[in-house]
Specification:
With 285 residues, this protein is mainly alpha-helical. It is built from 13 helices and no strands.
Length: 285
């Protein structure tokens, strides 16, 4: 929603300023220029992107439209889930959560947090880590290193759509120049025409440059920045899980491990100590 609002502000500002100066909207309607720039940009993207990357980009664009972001409620849910899992392990032993880890969808603990359960990467991080702890004698520092590697690989994967769209944004001004040069070539073929005709042709050619720069800095470039922020938020969320797991495996009590995790939650969505304490007390009732 916010992305659409931003796009409308860009269009309203540029076109509003243009009209304010007495511009004619009809001059900006140059379908051939749109085809050259848009078609070349899409074609370049297809050349540069394997199918896997294309799917990631389309999914990323959907996430921009959805305005996906982690809220305080999401982080609170994670803290409560971690607390439940750690408390069960502490009381009944690691083996007691084997069934929960093997089938999270059927687990009473995981099912109590449906939003978390829909985050397949987060579920995989938690269950795979607990499986590793159950089946090996991995040391806490080794577990931390393992999770760091996994989160780094996951972040790199999330950054693929941002980098791909940013490459398209970088190409747009150049493609705008291509469209302008094509327009100038066509204008030169009309060199014997009256000045009014030549002026119209040159104006149409310059629309290509205008469109390329506007798309780069007004729409496509900001979309790439948006995807970068989404990837950063995902990394922060997964990092909270990592800290909780490593702290608990390192010997911290369930409530202490949860507090370690709470401390690294971004400030604008971080539940307070009292809020978490009240929620945990309510959970035990």
């Amino acid at each position: 929603m916010f992305a659409l609002i931003g796009a409308m502000v860009v269009l309203g500002s540029v076109l509003g300023g243009y009209l304010w100066h007495g511009g004619n909207l009809h001059v900006l309607f140059q379908p051939s220029e749109y085809l050259i720039i848009g078609g070349a940009a899409i074609g370049g993207f297809i050349i540069a992107s394997p199918p896997k990357v294309m799917r990631s980009v389309f999914q990323g664009l959907l996430n921009i439209l959805k305005g996906k972001a982690y809220t305080k409620a999401d982080y609170m849910e994670v803290l409560l889930l971690m607390s439940e899992i750690f408390s069960k392990i502490r009381k009944e032993g690691l083996v007691s959560i084997e069934a929960d880890v093997d089938n999270p969808e059927a687990s009473k603990i995981f099912s109590a947090y449906p939003k978390f359960l829909k985050n397949h990467h987060a579920v995989a991080l938690v269950t795979d880590t607990l499986r590793t702890v159950m089946t090996t004698s991995i040391a806490p520092h080794e577990l931390e290193s393992l999770l760091d590697s996994e989160l780094e690989a996951h972040h790199e994967e999330l950054m693929i759509p941002s980098k791909s769209i940013n490459n398209v944004a970088d190409a747009l001004p150049g493609l705008g120049i291509v469209a302008a040069v094509v327009g100038v070539i066509l204008t030169m073929a009309k060199i014997s025409e009256p000045p009014e005709v030549l002026g119209h042709s040159i104006g149409a050619a310059l629309v290509g440059t205008f469109l390329g720069v506007l798309m780069c800095y007004g729409f496509v470039g900001p979309a790439a920045r948006n995807l970068e922020h989404i990837a950063g938020e995902e990394r922060e969320y997964m990092n909270v899980l990592k800290v909780a797991l490593v702290s608990f495996v390192g010997g911290a009590a369930p409530q202490i491990a949860v507090e370690f995790a709470r401390r690294i939650i971004p400030g604008n969505v971080k539940p307070s100590f009292i809020e978490v304490e009240d929620a945990l007390r309510e959970l035990k009732k």
